[in-house]
């Protein structure tokens, strides 16, 4: 499964590079799909778990919301999102979720937002590092700083909802040592 994700990610990266939008690979969904791929292929379960958790909890719902709002997506991006969701599902079902995964994932998201702000132009607004989603600008008016609060709040909500759903359905909770929790 990891090899299929690798192929999908590389095809998507080539497509974005050819279209002149390679910086879009810094969107969190692409970064966490890459983390999932590396984790699965390198048998680095902690990295695969974080990638899978983020992807199932935030990236996939966020992607579909963006597709609905923008009414567009690149076919290669769609494939990456669907393949990563499948690989992520298998990873969580097989490997479970450690208690630390939620906090680690949230911290990595904050780091990725900071990196996006430092490395990308405001016109791309990668990871909403510079303001709200274009379809939501009208709601923030003179208070664009609220977009950071609400965007991060939405992220926390998606992760919390994903955590609860995954824990109640397919994932078993693991302790720090990797054994099932009591």
What does this structure look like?
The protein has 182 residues and is mainly α. The protein contains seven helices and two strands; from the N terminus they run ααααβαααβ. The protein has helices at residues 2-18, 28-41, 45-70, 75-95, 101-119, 137-140, 145-169; strands at residues 97-98, 173-174. The chain has a two-stranded parallel ribbon. The longest helix is centred in the first third of the chain and has 26 residues, at 45-70. It starts with a helix and ends in an 8-residue tail after the last strand. The model has no long low-confidence stretch (mean pLDDT 85).
Shape: globular
Q: What is the percentage of strand-forming residues? A: under 5%
Strand order of the largest sheet: 1-2
Summarize model confidence as the mean pLDDT: 85
| DSSP summary: helix tally | 7
Helix content: 55-70%
Low-confidence stretches: none
Structural class: mainly alpha
Number of strands: 2
How do the SSEs run, as a string of H and E?
A: HHHHEHHHE
Biggest pleated-sheet summary: 2 strands, parallel
Distance between the termini: 31 Å
Q: If you compute it from the alpha carbons, what radius of gyration comes out, rounded to the nearest whole angstrom?
A: 16 Å
List keywords for this structure.
two-stranded parallel sheet; mainly alpha; 7 helices; 182 residues; globular
Show the helix and strand layout.
Elements: H1 2-18, H2 28-41, H3 45-70, H4 75-95, E1 97-98, H5 101-119, H6 137-140, H7 145-169, E2 173-174
Parallel strand pairs: 1-2
Helix pairs in contact: 1-2, 1-4, 2-3, 2-4, 3-4, 3-5, 3-7
């Amino acid at each position: 499964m990891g090899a299929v994700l690798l192929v999908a990610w590389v095809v998507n990266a080539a497509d974005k590079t050819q279209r002149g939008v390679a910086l879009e690979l810094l969107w969190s969904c692409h970064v966490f799909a890459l983390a999932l791929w590396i984790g699965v292929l390198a048998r680095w379960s902690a990295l695969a778990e974080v990638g899978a958790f983020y992807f199932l909890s935030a990236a996939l719902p966020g992607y579909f919301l963006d597709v609905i709002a923008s009414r567009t997506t690149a076919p290669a991006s769609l494939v990456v999102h669907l393949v990563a969701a499948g690989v992520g599902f298998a990873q969580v079902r097989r490997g479970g979720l450690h208690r630390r995964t939620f906090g680690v994932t949230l911290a990595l998201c904050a780091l990725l937002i900071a990196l996006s702000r430092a490395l990308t132009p405001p016109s791309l607004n990668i990871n909403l590092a510079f303001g709200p989603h274009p379809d939501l600008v009208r709601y923030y008016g003179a208070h664009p700083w609220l977009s950071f609060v609400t965007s991060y709040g939405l992220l926390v909500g998606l992760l919390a909802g994903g955590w609860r759903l995954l824990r109640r359905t397919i994932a078993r909770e693991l302790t720090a040592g990797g054994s099932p929790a009591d």
